[in-house]
Amino acid sequence: MRRTVNGKVYDTKTSELCYFSDLSASFSNECVYMTESVWKTETGEFFLCFDCEPMWHLFDAETRKTLKKRCKSITPITEDDVDLWLEEQDNIYM
Questions:
Q1: For the chain, which ranges sit under pLDDT 70?
Q2: Could you tell me if 57 and 27 are in contact, meaning their C-beta atoms sit under 8 angstroms apart?
Q3: CA 45 – CA 75 distance, rounded (Å)
Q4: Closest listed residue to residue 55, CA positions, set 21, 91, 29, 22
Q5: How far is Cα 55 from Cα 85, in angstroms, rounded to an integer?
Q6: Mind listing the pLDDT tens digit for each residue in 75-87?
Q7: Distance between the two ends of the chain, CA-based, in angstroms?
C-alpha cells in the first residue's frame, strides 16, 4: 500500500515490516479480514497501516464507498506510539 500523508510518501513495498496484528473476526460464519501493521521507512520513520475487507454485501453502495476509503489507511506514528500500540495488542507477529 502506498499513501501520501502531509506531503510524505509512505509505501509498504519499500519499508520494513516491524509488527503485524491480525484483528480478523467472524460474524455469522463470515470472516471479516482486518490487520494492523507497523512499518519503518528507509529514513527511520514509523507508520501504522490498517487494512480490512468487510462483508461488502451487507452495505449499500454509498457506505461501501466510504468504507473502502477507511479500510486502507496509513498513519504516521512516533516511536513512542509504536510502544503504546504494542502494549494494546493481543496477538502480535514479528
A1: 26-31, 68-69, 90-94
A2: no
A3: 11
A4: 29
A5: 26
A6: 999 999 999 998 8
A7: 19
The distance from CA 11 to its chain's CA centroid, rounded to whole angstroms, is 12
* d(C-alpha 80, C-alpha 75), whole Å: 14
User: Is 77 exposed, middle or buried (CB count within 10 Å of its CB: 0-12, 13-18, 19+)?
Assistant: middle
**Taking a C-beta distance cutoff of 8 angstroms, is the pair 3, 69 a contact?**
no
Residue whose entry in the numeric block shows the C-alpha cell 507477529: 93
Interatomic CA distance for residues 34 and 51, integer angstroms:
6
